[in-house]
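FAQ
Q: What does a multi-component entry look like?
A: The components come first, one per line:
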Amino acid sequence: MKALCWEGRNKVEVENVPDPKILNDRDAIVRITSTAICGSDLHLLDGYVPTMKKGDILGHEFMGEVVEFGKGVGNLQVGDRVVVPFPIACGACNACELELYSLCENTNPNARLAEKMFGHSTAGIFGYSHLTGGFAGGQSEYVRVPFADVGPLKIENGFADEQVLFLSDVYPTGYMGAEMCDIRGGEVIAIWGAGPVGQFAAASASLLGAERVIVIDRFEYRLRIAERHTGAETLNYEEVDSVPEALKELTGGRGPDACIDAVGMEAHGATMDDWYDKTKTSMMLATDRLSALRQAIHACRKGGTVSIPGVYGGFLDKVPFGAAFGKGLTLKMGQTHVHRYLPILMDRIERGEIDPSYVITHRLRLDDAPDAYTTFRNKEDNCIKVVLRPGRVLGDGCCVLGAGC
Amino acid sequence: MATHQIRKRDKDSLTQFLGWLSVGLGTAQLLAPAALCRLVGASGRGASHRLMRLMGVRELAQGVGILTRPRPSAWLWSRVAGDGLDLSLLVLTAVKNRRARSAFVIANVLAVTVPDVLESRHLSEKQGEPQRGMLVRKAVTINRPREDVERAWVGAAELREKVLSAHAQVSFADAPGRRGTELAVEFLHAPPAGDLGAAALKVAGKDLPTQLADDLRRFKQQVETGEIIRSDSTPGGHLLTSQLRQRPAQPLEEVAR
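Then the predicted structure of the entire assembly, as tokens:
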């Protein structure tokens, strides 16, 4: 089969690799019909996530059709359409019982590596380095799905791929980012990053009852989409003197009740600390660039919450922890417990509260994936979200690279 | 309240670090005296290479002594004496050759002398018999009632045999808050040649604590999920040795079930 493989820093290629096979009784093989490139895939591309190996298949946002399953899978049939959550969860351990699926205790066969780095291991994740298990990802024609009786959500309501694909990651990730803000009605929520996670965090914050949502980015086209689809106010950080000061002045001196960092470890910023991070990371003296997180902590009101759905990977330098302590902030973060949100968010889609496909700007073939990574990373052609369709030719509404949609 | 004895030992991580530093530096001095002479600003002529090798033998002996003895106070003090000797030779080198790098190396040796002195004093203050070996406890919490876990343990003949031959104690306890069952295996870990021996066993994949940690993890997976999770990069399931030699995360050509 064809699959997109990581070939080294800043290099991905479509290669022919063996077809996946059932390894465990609770596995299923899924033929991919749609798969997306995630912002966090760029962290792998850019070499910010350790333990990548040449030949690793990328991709953790995908859906498709069940073509085979092991004898331990009792709830799926060949031909079922399924969306697959990006964390792999066993459904039986204490973490899964507590619905903390991305912290599953059993699904990382490289747990020891993760324990050395983090103290404890997270769940296995498709196509996301060997630290999270070394599972082949879904930017391919087929994928093996472990614990297929636990994770995949059957799509039986006739929705098109594009309307439900993002249940695999970015929609629940944005939703969890908003949910972690403990919105009870009437809050002001500031969101750093108007990529897909930031877009869905903004939409979710509004749906959960926030009175004002302010989205911060530097790309006007992304801010306009947030404005149009989520009703958010926007702030271009390249056009203001100081984001925390601007937010303070926009919120009566109080500051946002909660701040969501939907950017993560490769933040950009028009600030000195961003240049400091860039210098240190380029010399391998630091692991993450965190100007968005610093601003979020600095801007948040006293006693507020900083929610961090953006991915961080290492040892963060110059975190304003004194500010977080002094202001009594609550910090909440983590990989998304996707399984927990699937029924809730499917319900919202069915009720017509949201159509997540609005973030899609590029529809391409799997063969075009290397170029798509470049377009997405460089924010060329007004790109927000790329959906790849393995095994399909252009013609059914797909855009060619460069045309924009 | 109980005072725990788990992982109690005389040597702390700073002592171990200083031991490995001696082994590393000594090996470099023995194998590459010319490069080390250049580094410290020595001329490299005359007896300097031989002197560098001699100092390397000294460092190596100190490192081996620190890593193999249970309470290496004397060996740590020998490092302090060695620092004095190194500083004297470096000052002579600096005066003779007048190179800036000698001053840089002197600053580094001084920076290491401080923890050498503090750690030597710390270890010298310990009373009583040196602690030989270390009580290690490997434990997992399995999200099942105790009787289920005990029944599964009876069925795990290979693992029980390994635990028995290591003279380890096995215990089962209800986890706090009725959150499953804690399975713990406790044993005295006293590898031959101390930390050096432990490191050699680890590299060879024969380190008992690591093996038992792997085995307990797999036992938990089996009891909780009915299978050992396998990925494309680690098709054999969780084993520390296989984690160091991973294949790419893409499907295998052939599958062994």
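Q: Is there any commentary attached?
A: Sometimes. For this entry: Chain A touches chain B through 44 residues (CB under 8 Å).
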